[in-house]
Amino acid sequence: MSDIPQDISHDQYAVRLKKLQDMRAAGFDPFRANAEQTHFSQDAKALYVDGQEYGPKVAVAGRLVTFRVQGGSSFVKIQDQQGQIQLYFRRDVLGEERYGEFKKALDLGDIIGATGDLFKTKTGETTVRVAAFTLVSKALRPLPEKWHGLTDAEQVYRQRYLDLIVNLESRARLMLRSRIVASVRATLAGRSFIEVETPVLEGVAGGAAARPFVTHHNALGADFFLRIALELRLKRLLVGGYDRVFEIGRIFRNEGVSRKHNPEFTMLEVYQAYSDFRGMMQLIRAIFDDVCRNVLGTSEIKHAASGEMINFAGEWREARYFDLIDAAAGSPLSALRGTDGYKAAATAAAQALGLDIHPGWEAFEIVNEIFSKKIEPTLIQPTFVTHLPKELCPLAKLNQQDAGLIDVFELCIGGMEVAPAYSEQNDPFVQREMFEQQVGEDQQKLDHDFLLALEHGMPPAGGMGVGIDRLCILLTGAESIRDVILFPSLRPSGAAPQV
Length: 499
Known about the structure:
Layout: H1 6-25, H2 41-47, E1 57-70, E2 73-79, E3 84-90, H3 91-94, H4 96-105, E4 111-120, E5 126-137, H5 153-158, H6 160-166, H7 168-189, E6 194-195, E7 201-202, E8 214-217, E9 222-226, H8 231-239, E10 244-252, E11 264-273, H9 277-296, E12 300-302, E13 309-311, E14 317-320, H10 321-329, H11 342-352, H12 363-375, E15 383-386, E16 408-413, E17 416-423, H13 428-439, H14 448-455, E18 461-467, H15 468-476
Parallel strand pairs: 3-5, 6-10, 14-15
Antiparallel strand pairs: 1-2, 1-4, 2-3, 4-5, 7-9, 8-9, 10-11, 11-18, 12-13, 15-16, 16-17, 17-18
Helix pairs in contact: 7-9, 10-12, 11-12
């Protein structure tokens, strides 16, 4: 899987292995050594004050990523979690023997620790003047070559560790993801939400319309499903008296892989008692405001696909679902809802827009195909799409003015759905009816325990889901969901590395 020819890789492996064997024969094993690390690279650099001859003493550690030997002195750079820092090795400081070991034993990719005083070079780079160093891990395989290595997309995702070493853009993007998630948690914690964990294995795959992964529990002698949503467990907690609750957890859906879909993904679900879908509008605005202020440092980002600047400041657009549908269809299609001619009119409108329609689809599915293919991709600026057809979500409250609609929004930004939210259904009779309509004759898919919980009384509530991966695609400018997941789903590779 190396980016360089296999014979070269093999030669370098043999050379490095011989160095390791020689060190062990001399009584030193780098894999049994450790190094002190008092500061990360950027924190160490921040300690140096201009005008000093030497700054404070630091101990840093990381992987050798550049190596420049100049006779009796050498410059190298190591890379750690925060970035890179330069180290300056001198023969007259380390001594002849130790400096010789430095030049002979180390290779690019090795992991070392070093201690010394900070100073600034003539070129203005803050550097550690090394007084002592230790090799703590010998890299037996070379890193991909800087300019021509690790360009194959499959290898980037399959050997993410190499991608993180050599591609600074990937490192920065995935670090930014961590900060975004931390900001979301802080926003919710500051509003008295309780973070919880709920089971990944479920007896009933509920809370969404999706194909689950199936597994078998040997001890219990029963099939279980990897969860497809967090919703039904978290709503049980509303019944139990947790008024504000959230979970950031892994979801599994045995479905396709695309630029916006990975079978295993991360979802935030949050529920607030005595609120509704409009309360969730305020909450998602707060989440974005905090991320913009504390993480991005700006309220404007560039949409990767179109180049359009997305503005998160000011008022966000609100548009009713069927108003958008009628505009796209060029006719008042919504006026036909509930009539015998609705499906035929929806089919004609979709076909006129160039969409392929399955003959077995219901009218609401055809209309939603118009929305997902012709409307959603155009919603670049933040837009709350409200009052969707009730068939699209059996867990939301019916609208009091139009029982064919539900009190929900889908927040669309950058041409994709980022966060759906509902006024949650808490009427056990309506909920049972909606579930039964959804599952049809397949009644074993009903979550009877959840319906039992509702009969004990669930407070009115607003609920929201935020696809963390899609949020990170949007905010980091990534091209694909794979670029914001450390280890995306890939077809297993059985190839063993050649030595």
